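Researcher: Predict the fold of PID domain-containing protein.
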Amino acid sequence: MSSCGDMGEAIELSTREHETPEMHKLRQSLRRKKPTYVPEASRPHQWQADEEAVRKGKCNFPVRYLGLVEVEESRGMHVCEEAVKKQKVSGKKTVKAVLWVSADGLRVVDEKTKDLIVDQTIEKVSFCAPRS
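Model: Structure tokens for PID domain-containing protein follow.
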């Protein structure tokens, strides 16, 4: 003999087998859904203000300028990490600066003296890495 709980499950299963597509759609819509992950790069609405600032040449970030290191390869986190290690080992002081990003290039300006430290055309930039 089966218990009442088993019988209820059997009835529910048999009714779901014959449910209409509309009822199935309604049932699915009432279930809690896990939020789908959307990477930041795929969220264009979050970048519109930044894109406009870049086009106008008004996009800037406060930075600590470490220096300049020539690299063998043009891409990859490992290349950036090695360059940062070389700079830190050199013992040179970092400079508080402002990084200006525009459609034609990157410029680094000393925060205190306002001297131009770097003026790099955008065509020469092949890779950017997040802070490590």
